[in-house]
UniProtKB/TrEMBL annotation:
Protein name: Peroxisomal membrane protein 11A isoform X2
Keywords of the record: Membrane, Peroxisome, Peroxisome biogenesis, Transmembrane, Transmembrane helix
Primary location: membrane
GO terms, biological process: peroxisome fission
GO cellular component: peroxisomal membrane
Length: 127
């Protein structure tokens, strides 16, 4: 239990670091995109609340996708940490899942680890 708890905290901190790096990358991509655009786009005159909410979500997801596409090591590290956290969550009883999900998470995490060993440029470098 002690080891699982500390491993869980370690993975949580790694995920927080990944989220911070993702936010920095998203900010950089948004800044670069704003510099490329010379004139503001013309918006239609009529909006509904639903359109504004879905437009915000779509633009956020597009920005997230572009950021992770531009920085694949960050995507790889985030997926690896997310898959790794499934095991201590189950061991500590915080989120029970079946053994198949934990095994699949371990498999994906192992493949991500192998990729970082085989291709050193895919290893996340923090600022």
């Amino acid at each position: 239990m002690w080891a699982a708890r500390h491993y869980y905290y370690s993975l949580l901190l790694s995920l927080v670091r990944d989220l911070y790096e993702i936010s920095l990358q998203m900010e950089q991509v948004a800044h670069d995109r704003a510099k490329k655009e010379k004139s503001p786009s013309q918006d239609p005159l009529v909006y509904s609340v639903a359109d504004e909410e879905t437009e915000w979500l779509q633009s956020f997801l597009l920005l997230l996708f572009r950021s992770l596409k531009k920085h694949p090591p960050l995507l790889l590290d985030t997926v690896k940490n997310f898959c790794d956290i499934l095991n201590p969550l189950d061991q500590l009883g915080l989120y029970k899942s079946n053994p198949g999900i934990i095994g699949l998470g371990g498999l994906v995490s192992s493949i991500a680890g192998i990729i970082t060993v085989a291709y050193p440029q895919m290893k996340l470098k923090t600022r």
